[in-house]
Design a protein that fits this description.
Blueprint lengths: L3 H13 L10 H10 L5 H21 L5 E5 L3 H15 L5 E5 L1 H7 L16 H33 L3 H12 L8 E4 L7 H14 L3 E5 L15 E2 L2 H17 L6 E6 L6 E2 L11 H6 L4 E3 L13 E3 L2 E5 L7 E2 L5 H13 L5 E4 L6 H12 L7 E4 L6 H15 L21 H11 L1 H8 L2 E6 L2 H17 L5 H14 L7 H4 L2 H12 L18
Parallel strand pairs: 1-2, 1-14, 2-3, 3-4, 4-6, 5-7, 6-12, 13-14
Antiparallel strand pairs: 7-11, 8-10, 9-10
Keywords: Lyase, Magnesium, Metal-binding
Cofactor: Mg(2+)
GO molecular function: isocitrate lyase activity; metal ion binding
């Protein structure tokens, strides 16, 4: 990208060619506007962020401590405030992404109103949220640069050359708030053509990374609910191909595909694939189907289905709705096969949906996958559907019991009880939760940790706290003490909500366009001055 001075000089040259007709245009103002609008299209964003993500993946392969993280965001403003906070506290956005959760799109963005995570929401709402998130992130860039331009003007007016050079350096080294989004396409919203069409819209909106799962699209369930139904590998690979075609068609060669398997918790298949050759994927998939051996055709009833499984003929176990059951306790084996197959057929990262956050369980599967694909790595859902407190307290309880330690002071099923909060066991469990991401990145091949719907919960919690006190005895003090005073003291830029919404940027534009005649909002009577 051209520097500030290069942009200014380029625009000056353009204006001079117009023989005085454009003399009202200030080249430096145009340069500022260009810098504030670095990304012209969603494809510019997708290519830029894909390069970031590929570089991060390579970095993790060299050093597992360089894992990445994200939080799920259901609105552009939430994503914007998250990245502003990250830049404020850590001075860089490196290694921090956004996650777009299909669950939150369904629950919070559908025109039908709140829906369960079953792909019933409009597919158009997914690319619409991607575009919204990046619109807000670009606005965060514009706002921060606007403040730097103000600082530059002030330094020049004061004749402070040292300050001027310092601000110019900050402008030249400005780090954008635009970061990769891992975007959930659910099970593809239909057949492979439907998946391709939606993937295109998501990429055009800015997505560099698309996550797709191996559930049946019209029977899709949340990964943490019962009743999940998977598809044969051939069907899933067709959708991976569809997403890759979409990336390549649009010129995003480094686009990233996350292949998610729900096989660990899925006990059903909708379809029995047809084997074309001994040992092919269809035959491997069918080997896990549950059934009763048939030794005589006279055992069959009308409508019965039989398949050959190894040396046996079996009648698959079917539910009343026609779905076919898998053998019990085959989930991990199916997950491993799913993952290897996906990586060998175009996927870049894996997602194994588990029923609990257990490093040993995850590592057991990843180690088996890495025997075939050595650089296999995961995106992992640090899900709010897990009871993290109870899970880790029980894990510590079990570890201590296995070590022969006395656990008589604890009741395993009651470990969530507040009475245990200050106990040694609870302290050890909390430490394991704190280090879970670092430990899992090192021991279980997890490249990216995300929380799918944290901001859903934080919005509910903060609203409950405010409503409880504001409508109670505290009245206005509830807002002042619990929100505004904390915003001021924690240095939240959002306390100046007019500035955050773009008021000052608008004032500058009015001045660019109208000069001294501009009617601006940021005068002495603007109450936002109380927060300076």
């Amino acid at each position: 990208m051209k520097t500030y001075n290069e942009q200014t000089n380029e625009v000056s040259s353009i204006i001079k060619k117009r023989d005085g007709l454009w003399n009202a245009i200030n080249p430096e103002n145009v340069a500022r506007m260009r810098l504030q609008n670095r990304f012209k299209t969603g494809l510019d964003i997708a290519n830029y962020t894909a390069n970031i993500m590929r570089s991060d993946m390579d970095g993790y392969d060299q050093d597992s401590s360089k894992y990445t993280q994200s939080l799920g965001c259901w609105h552009g403003f939430i994503g914007q405030q998250k990245m502003i906070s990250i830049k404020k506290h850590f001075s860089t956005t490196k290694g921090r992404y956004l996650y777009l959760s299909g669950w939150m799109v369904a629950a919070m963005r559908s025109e039908f109103g709140p829906l369960p995570d079953q792909s019933m929401h409009e597919k158009t709402s997914v690319p619409a949220l991607i575009e919204e998130l990046y619109t807000f992130l670009k606005q965060a860039d514009a706002r921060e640069l606007n403040h730097l331009f103000k600082d530059l003007d002030a330094a020049r007016s004061a004749g402070d050359d040292v300050k001027t050079r310092s601000v110019e350096k900050q402008i030249e080294n400005f780090e954008t708030h635009v970061v990769p989004i891992i975007a959930d396409i659910d099970a593809g919203f239909g057949n492979e053509e439907a998946t391709y069409l939606l993937a295109k819209k998501m990429i055009e909106a800015g997505a560099c990374c698309i996550q797709i799962e191996n559930q049946v699209s019209d029977a899709k369930q949340c990964g943490h609910q019962d009743g999940k139904v998977t598809v044969p590998h051939e069907d899933f690979l067709a959708k991976i191909n569809a997403v890759r075609y979409a990336f390549l068609e649009l010129g995003v060669e480094d686009g990233v595909i996350v292949a998610r398997t729900d096989s660990l918790g899925a006990g059903l298949t909708q379809k029995i694939p047809v084997s074309q050759a001994p040992g092919d994927l269809a035959q491997q998939y069918n080997a896990y189907i549950d059934g009763e051996e048939v030794t005589s055709l006279s055992d069959l009833q009308s409508g019965d289905l039989i398949i050959k499984q190894g040396d046996k003929i079996i009648r698959p176990t079917r539910l009343a709705n026609g779905l076919v059951k898998f053998k019990a306790n085959t989930g991990e084996d199916r997950c491993v096969l799913d993952c290897i197959t996906s990586l060998q057929n175009g996927a870049d990262l894996l997602w194994i949906e588990t029923e609990k956050p257990h490093i040993g369980q995850i590592a057991g599967m990843v180690n088996r996958i890495r025997e075939v694909v050595p650089n296999a790595k995961l995106v992992y859902n640090n899900s709010p559907s897990f009871n993290w407190t109870l899970n880790f307290r029980q894990q510590v309880f079990d570890q201590w019991a296995d070590q022969g330690r006395d656990v008589g002071a604890y009741q395993r099923e009651q470990l969530m009880n507040e009475s245990y909060d200050s106990s040694e066991l609870a302290i050890v469990a909390d430490e394991q939760i704190r280090s879970f991401q670092k430990d899992a990145a090192q021991q279980a091949g997890i490249f990216h940790h995300l929380i799918t719907l944290p901001t859903y919960h934080t919005a509910a919690l903060s609203t409950d706290n405010l409503a409880k006190d504001y409508f109670g005895e505290q009245g206005m003090l509830a807002y002042v003490q619990g929100v505004q005073r904390r915003e001021i003291r924690q240095g939240l830029a959002c306390v100046k909500h007019q500035d955050m919404s773009g008021s000052n940027i608008g004032d500058d534009h009015k001045e660019y366009f109208s000069g001294t005649q501009a009617l601006k909002a940021s005068g002495e009577d603007n109450t936002m001055n109380q927060f300076s």
